[in-house]
Specification:
This protein is an all-alpha fold and 374 residues long. The chain is 78% helix and 0% strand.
């Protein structure tokens, strides 16, 4: 091989390595910085550009070009918006917007854009849907904040109980006569000690349980899952959130895009999780069997109350399934947000009360132990 050929081969190899490194860095940046909140903000920005004054008929590519110029001017290093714009613009040359979004956006948004591409009211439809998702996500973050706050308060109280137990045992050893008539809350004290001693095992256990639920909730489809959806809190919450997304998307596909129920369900199945597919398959079976009205959606995905709303809305007035789905897409988020607020606030309140009780008992024990040692 000549020196010139070796040099060209070396340059090609170096350029390929640079492109691969750049692609890896871009993927990593998007993965880390383009979460659900950033995706919602990106879609809101896209909708603002598309519905802006004088922008009627603007293509997605043209809107993305405008957004890219703005993001490029801002030079925000803690955002992946610029990289997302570049990838979407590159893909839009040969693909639709929904196809270009795959792998970058949450599957919910991909499904919404896919269904709205046949709608004449796409901007308003997607904007309304993204607002619903943003509202529910905001309440989910508040739920996490409340539960984490209550948990930390209880853990802090139990750690205090451990130190109170140390003081109590010391006083019991050195001054048994003085501690003879003191009725110590042994269960609380021992619980605190157990927590402190067992935390190296409890932390990995909790992380493992959380990871298991993250993987398990969208994939578990056995008959036992239907019972878990009624009684196991993580499954109940996942079912409620899935119902919001599912019926809001179905309303968008049938009401706005004008698809039939069967075709809409088939399109949704293409991007669905195994859990979604379990319900979609049952709905498709109901459609094939000729089940009419809202009963074709009776798969256990909706709560009993929302299921009644759906059937009542389908039977009232014109009896339109699209009207019924519209009612559910509005009432579903409202009911779920209320349920999340009440349940999380109640649990946090109980945990704080428990933390206060443990803290008072621990403090009382520590004071008595200190008096005995003085």
């Amino acid at each position: 091989m000549s020196t010139e050929n070796r040099y060209m081969l070396s340059q090609q190899t170096e350029d390929a390595a640079k492109r691969e490194h750049s692609t890896f860095v871009t993927r990593a940046k998007i993965k880390l910085l383009f979460g659900m909140k950033a995706q919602i903000q990106f879609i809101e920005n896209l909708m603002q550009v598309l519905r802006g004054a004088g922008n009627e008929g603007m293509t997605d590519a043209a809107a993305l070009k405008i957004m890219r110029e703005i993001y490029l001017h801002e030079k925000d290093l803690l955002s992946a918006n610029l990289e997302v714009c570049d990838i979407l613009m590159e893909r839009l040359v040969e693909q639709s917007m929904s196809s270009a979004m795959e792998g970058l956006f949450n599957s919910n948004f991909v499904m919404l854009f896919r269904s709205a591409e046949e709608s004449s009211n796409i901007v308003e439809s997607i904007n309304a849907a993204s607002i619903t998702v943003a509202t529910v996500k905001k309440e989910q973050r508040m739920v996490v904040f409340k539960l984490v706050g209550g948990t930390f308060a209880l853990l802090a109280a139990l750690v205090c109980a451990n130190y109170a137990n140390i003081a109590y045992e010391m006083a019991l050893t050195e001054e048994p006569q003085k501690m003879m008539f003191f009725d110590a809350p042994l269960f609380i004290l021992n619980s605190g000690t157990l927590l402190v001693k067992a935390w190296p095992f409890l932390v990995p256990l909790c992380i493992g349980l959380i990871a298991m639920h993250i993987y398990w909730l969208p994939t578990w489809t056995s008959e036992l899952r239907r019972s878990a959806d009624r009684y196991w809190p993580p499954c109940i919450l996942y079912r409620r959130l899935t119902a919001i997304r599912f019926f809001s998307t179905l309303h968008l596909m049938t009401g706005e895009a004008g698809l039939s129920i069967k075709i809409a369900l088939q399109q949704m199945k293409a991007a669905a999780t195994p859990y979604d597919c379990m319900h979609i398959d049952q709905m498709l079976d109901n459609v094939e069997a000729g089940v009419g009205g809202a009963s074709q959606f009776d798969t256990g995905l909706l709560t009993a109350r929302l299921n009644i709303y759906l059937k009542m809305a389908a039977e009232s007035g014109k009896g339109s399934i699209e009207d019924a789905l519209k009612v559910i897409s509005k009432l579903g988020p409202e009911e779920t947000i209320k349920a999340l607020k009440y349940a999380s606030t109640f649990i946090m309140f109980i945990m704080i009360l428990m933390a206060l009780y443990v803290g008072v008992q621990s403090g009382f024990t520590a004071i008595n132990a200190a008096r005995a040692l003085i």
